[in-house]
Amino acid sequence: MVLNSSPIHNVSGSMDCWTPQQTVEIMTLSSVKKSRMSLAKCFVSSMYGGMLLSFGCTFVLAVNASPWFATNAPGVLALIRALVFPVGLIMIVLTGADLLTSNVMLMVIGVLRRKVTLWQLCVNWVVSFFGNLSGSLFFMAIIIVCYPPPPHCSSHNTDILGQHYGNIFHTPAQISATATFGNQKVLDPAWHEIFLRGIACNWLVCLAVILGTMSREVISKMAGIEFPTATFIACGFDHVVANFFFLPTAMWAGADFGVGYYIWKSLIPSLLGNIVGGGLFCGAGYWYLYVHDEEMPDYRGENVLEGAEVSELGGPTGSGHSSFKKNREDSEFTLRNGQHGGMDQSRGPEEICDSRAPGERSSRTRLSTPNGSSKCLPITHTTWTKYLVRLGDDKPCTGIKRCVSPADHDGPHHQHLHSSKQIGNGNMVRLGSLFIATLLGVAAAHGNDNHGSDKSSNNKHQKSEEDRVRPHKYAGGSLADTDNLSWNGVPTNETDHVYTNAPGAHVYRAPKGKKNVILMISDGFGPASEYFARSFYQYKQGLSFETQLPLDELLTGSIRTRAIDSLITDSAASGTAYSCGIKSFNDAIAVDHKGEPCGTVLEGAKKLGYATGLVTTSRITHATPAVFSSHVTFRDWEDLIAQQQIGDNPLGRQVDLLMGGGRCYFTPQSTEKSCREDDRNLIEEAQSAGFSYIEDRAGFDGLNNGSSVDLPLLALFTQSHMSYEIDRKASKEPSLAEMSLTALNALNKAQVDQEEGFFIMIEGARIDHAAHNNDPIGHLHDILAYQEAVMAVRNWVDEHPESLLISTSDHECGGLALGRQANWTDSPFYGWYPSALANATNSTEVVGSAVAKMVNHTDAELRTYLNQTVLTQWMGIDDATTTEIDSLICNRNTSSMVTYQLSDMLNRRAAMGWSTHGHSGVDVNLYAYGAAAEAGLFIGNHENIFIGKFIEDYLGLDLHEITTVLNNGTFPDPYSGADLANFTRNLPVYDHDHRGLVDLHASCGM
Ligand SMILES: [Zn+2]
């Protein structure tokens, strides 16, 4: 073991232990868990702490009473005493019992990290004080001593049954040594001496806990605890909990002081000293040195460090991690093939205020319980009631019951999160080195050390080594040139923090400085949809099979999407995972599984001074944009969502830029096409609150690509959703790519003089709606429009490298598969035909509603219209059968039925299959672009809450604080301490309700 000039670095660099910084993070996590323990468990755990420590104390007293050593070799006696005592603390730390003195340090760190409240600190200290005290007294009174006290009891006095209890100390020598030990501790030193000794004592005890925490396996942990603890005993410092045993035992043995004197002279000064030693020198000290003023990951995520291989600092090696291809020439993604037209004035998504695409609503009814009678969650908030629940609107829930069992604490947590792994050879060498190196490292970190290197230079050294192993996208040179560049190509001289969360536990240092996060969400877009669009694009453009779509080049991992209450999510629950970083129930708009509002990353970013924006092709009040900007328990309460979006909520206005459709929820009910149920005119309210407002193409063009935007901006281009891309008239509505660039430029411009960047969510919303219709045309062209937007944003990120682009989906929709067997009796067929879709010029939804509008025409007229216009010109179908046309005529009055049938006609011809008009549960793809993406953070399979947590960490947000404000000062921590497996066990099970579906398919003649 060679110690070089930067011992801190050395600890992490060449030894198998956590760095001091990581150790502080683990201890923060520990403090959070301790703060959430039930009082009963905290008390019992503290009793264990008192009792286990008493074992060590007993050992000391037993050794003490060795007359020969006391007389002839007091130094040896002291050494032995010191070496044996730590057994108590070792047992406490390894079994996770609670000790007031170490809790002093942990809770101080938790409070300083703002993860624990002062009240929680006080409760924890008081409970562990009395728990330790009662544990120690129990141990002393029941196990150790005898009654009545000496000299009346002895090993031979068995007159009275039960008098003896443990009767460990019964020889006169032991008894007198015990009393003397007590007298020396209480009577000899002055009050202030005991106080100062208390400081030193807990400083050492907490260092023992720190070293124990630092170590990764049991033997090293034991060694880490042994030496500092032995030091405190050898020096005779005062530990308030050890004294809970020593001094009552001494009083029992006839010491010359009583209870009152003990409390005044010893307990109070040692307690105060211990608080200063552990809280100030260890807790606050290391907090300041390692986490203060630094960007840190958040610990609400249970698995940030728990059981994870955080591995060494330095991050991935970069080999094979980057999925990016520099040369984009392959793709040459140029879109739009001039297929607009066809439908004229009769088209009309914007004409209707019907809230969602056909079939979309079935996402909830599908899961209805047998009796279908469960009610929505009761909301008990006071001031939030008006936001969360429309008064008198006791809407029955059609979804499955949402009452999830209350959080169930799962026992005392300890700070020692990693189970013992192999106790390999070399441990003793390593632990010795660890001990020495760590002490030296700590000493160096305390400043003015004699190693000639201060902390900041250590950090610089450390960071430059890490950078060396990380590829840099924007450096513009070879990796060898990038040693001193940060992730965005800017020379690094500011430190930053380790971020670990991915299952692969990649280590990443979130950059300091300006950051933009661009979260793009392709709603209802699964892996099959990417293949579908890619195949079509290659076919249509006559390109090689190697051609990549823009998203293909950014693929990094996959996302799991299930909700709390169902294995198949809707956009609300999945969006809440992205916005709040928590799982919730289907329909939940930024509320947790109990219906309590949760702070979103948009709100957290706003709080820190970031600009914020939402762009979508759906109504701006639809679930995905809503989860970032409002809090309601039912996604269809879009009039409430609209109110909150323009600032009518406890946080005030949070969104600087709102762009999309959905005017109808902003206009009073008295006006035509309004969707509101009151007379509020939110457009006027927004304008008087400072919003600039546009609602058409001319207004959009006036924004001049974002350079003429006055934030806040409200842009509502349609009454309801914006058009499907295939139906969109560019003269009326901007494309998603156009809106995205305008928004990026506007937000960027607004922050040009700010240290903070912006957060924006951009949604390709109608990919999902088309999939609900099983409409391959609408689905396809909205995917391609989304790809075009991704391309545009990616190019923008290239010019603004402080930006991170994340793209993912909230869920798959439709159960799309390429390849279709018409019936199970048929032979399988290998292939699908993009060509069958190549001549369609409109979505089936728009065509379906056009057909349904032919009410004043005869069947014969409709047949002609179908033959000559609808099928041939709009759907590109020239081989419709008489049966198919008869069926369309039969369904003519129901727009959605016509839509479904048109979709089916296309799908059969293209050999495409869909399993549902709703969502499916498959994992969706995760794409990312930017240096953070290249650092490997997104690689692998993640739960969707990862995205919300990642953004929270990456931008250094405090969602805890936002959630607290939203809940009137309380923090209903979602499923804290809960057994998360409950969310799986409590899912509905097959109850024969779906047998009808099976019968339908099995019956003859269908
Ligand atoms: Zn959907």
TrEMBL record:
GO CC terms: fungal-type vacuole membrane
Which keywords does the record carry? Hydrolase, Magnesium, Membrane, Metal-binding, Phosphoprotein, Transmembrane, Transmembrane helix, Zinc
- In the UniProt entry, which residues are flagged as the active site? 571 (phosphoserine intermediate)
Q: Which annotated residues bind Zn(2+)?
A: 523, 768, 772, 810-811, 919
What Pfam families does the record tag this protein with?
Alk_phosphatase, Form_Nir_trans
Where are the compositionally biased (Basic and acidic residues) regions?
Answer: 347-363
InterPro entries in the cross-refs: Alkaline_phosphatase, Alkaline_phosphatase_AS, Alkaline_phosphatase_core_sf, Aquaporin-like, For/NO2_transpt, For/NO2_transpt_CS
Q: Where is the composition biased (Polar residues)?
A: 365-375
**Main localisation:** membrane
Cofactor dependence is on: Zn(2+); Mg(2+)
So what does this thing catalyse?
Answer: a phosphate monoester + H2O = an alcohol + phosphate
First-tier enzyme category under EC: hydrolase
Q: Please report which protein family the annotation says this sequence is part of.
A: Belongs to the FNT transporter (TC 1.A.16) family.
Q: What is this protein called?
A: Alkaline phosphatase
